[in-house]
Amino acid sequence: MLLTFTLLGFVVILSACGASTEPIGPDSSGFWDGVIIYNLSQFILWLSDLLGGSYGLAVIVFTALGQIILLPLTNYQQKSIEKTQEIQPQLEELREKYSSRDEETQAKLQEETKKLQDEAGVNPLMGCLPMLVQMPVFIALYQTVVRTPELATGHFLWLELGSSDPYYILPLLAAAFTMANSMLMSYGNPAAKTNATTFIMPVMIFFITFRVSSSLALYFATSNATRAIITLIFNNPFVKRRKLKEKEEMEKEKERRRKRAINKARKTGRSVRK
Fold this sequence. Notes:
The protein has 12 helices and 2 strands; from the N terminus they run ααααααααββαααα. The chain has 274 residues and is mostly helical. The protein has 3 domains: 2-87 and 122-235, no CATH class; 88-121, no CATH class; 239-274, no CATH class.
């Protein structure tokens, strides 16, 4: 839910920032225009020169580098989400126990929930922190492209970076990779339930990116694709699932051996430690 409101806030802020279309240059003043936007513009132009003049590849490399820099924060977020999923059964029990809607009961529910989260090392704000950290980057990249003539009119594949994707391919890819990330995190924890956010986020990403410049849609698609790759490399849910299944099988086999030992002891009249 926090992430949903974060995305909504991003749409509002981006819409407001889109009003500024004055070209950026060495004479631009102020911290935002003269320092942030101008230097980001120069960095992306420099990257494009290294990549054979491809502005689209420059945006992709810039995005991938950003995700690598954010890797510790992303990893911490993922661990927090996993811990949250692990305590979901206990949270459901608390909600049932304190189901009354009166103020005293709800206060007790909040107190017990906070206590459970603290004991499990769960920080509910971590779910949206990476998005909050990236929000200034989204806005800066958007303004950099639309206010840098070379980038605004630059082409990449079928795209004009300063205009929206006419075929909606990038918005669909951004939404698909967002869904893939959510599904990967859920797959790593069989106890996790697929909730509405899993489907709401990709839809919101699509509606955000199909209206803005292709460069921002490219950022979202690359960002989520990079995160999916990072997850598969460093926190592979398929490996985790396999190890969890192996652990469950070992526990079952241990229980079967214990029961066989008990049955055998009963037949021979000996005692067995349980």
